[in-house]
Specification:
Length: about 280
């Protein structure tokens, strides 16, 4: 099935003209989502915390419809069944499988994993709970509340002794420089889509190589999404602004990583053709 044309990033950043029928269409959709839609727990959380936040991503991963009464739960079930949400859950499993394969390839060697924009990162806990791999994990995020929630999950699953938590900004070279041990694997899933500046992302690849010099890098890239304009025009991000995501060809991001010194890209697309999950070696 051919992909239909969708607005590019620059177009999505510009407000629609009052003479454009789409302006009124998306205003109506946004109004409905903010009113009737708020009966859905997921939609309510999205408008409260941002549809690009770790809070909403974790809610989507849990995939348990909730809301105000029967109607709220039905609306929530519809929200969680959107293609974008299904893709989120799919790449979570792909990421878990790639990490498991990476650990198995190390044949019992002690492994240090650093997730630099972790959110709750509970998919890592699934890996830690499967088998004794001799893994130590550093979870870093700019949101202290998210890290506290992650710690609670780890303690409940009895894997907390393998994990260290730190506040940190993945894009700040000074913050990266405080990580004293070179990671065997750096994980940066869900980060690149909210970095709008190509040059900043490209520079970040070089910072990773020069400051941390990890053995491997795992990331994902949102390459295509038919719902991208609806998301940008009707939903909000963590700052309460339009939730504009930056789609990029996976080949472009891989080329930046290769320029920085990473190699051997292993690419897996989700079944919906939205995300590419990439593992690269150093």
């Amino acid at each position: 099935m051919p992909r239909r044309d969708i607005p590019d990033f620059e177009e999505l950043q510009k407000p629609l003209s009052l003479y454009d029928p789409r302006y009124y269409y998306f205003k109506l959709i946004s109004l409905l989502l903010r009113t009737v839609g708020s009966m859905s727990e997921g939609i309510r959380l999205g408008f409260e915390h941002g549809f690009d936040s770790g809070t909403i991503m974790n809610y989507i991963y849990e995939n348990t419809p909730n809301g105000m009464g029967f109607i709220g739960k039905q609306i929530d079930a519809s929200f969680l069944d959107q293609t974008t949400c299904k893709a989120f859950r799919s790449i979570r499993e792909i990421q878990r499988e790639k990490i498991t394969k990476f650990l198995e390839g190390r044949v019992g060697k002690k492994t240090f994993i650093a997730d630099l924009a972790s959110g709750k990162a509970d998919y890592l806990y699934d890996v830690l709970g499967e088998k004794e791999y001799g893994v130590e994990v550093l979870l870093r995020d700019i949101n202290e509340k998210t890290l506290a929630e992650s710690r609670a999950i780890a303690e409940r699953l009895d894997v907390g002794d393998k994990i260290t938590y730190e506040l940190g900004d993945a894009l700040d070279p000074g913050s990266l420089g405080t990580i004293s041990t070179a990671p065997d694997l750096v994980v940066e899933v869900g980060l690149y889509g909210i970095i709008h500046d190509d040059e900043l992302l490209k520079k970040h690849m070089f910072d990773l190589k020069e400051i941390l010099n990890p053995g491997a890098l795992l990331f994902n890239v949102q390459t295509y999404n038919e719902q991208i304009e609806l998301i940008a025009r009707a939903l909000v991000n963590q700052e309460g602004e339009p939730c504009v995501w930056h789609l990029r060809p996976v080949e472009l991001v891989i080329s930046w990583a290769e320029e920085a010194g990473f190699r051997e890209p292993e690419i897996t697309m989700d079944p919906y053709g939205i995300y590419a999950v990439v593992m690269m070696r150093n």
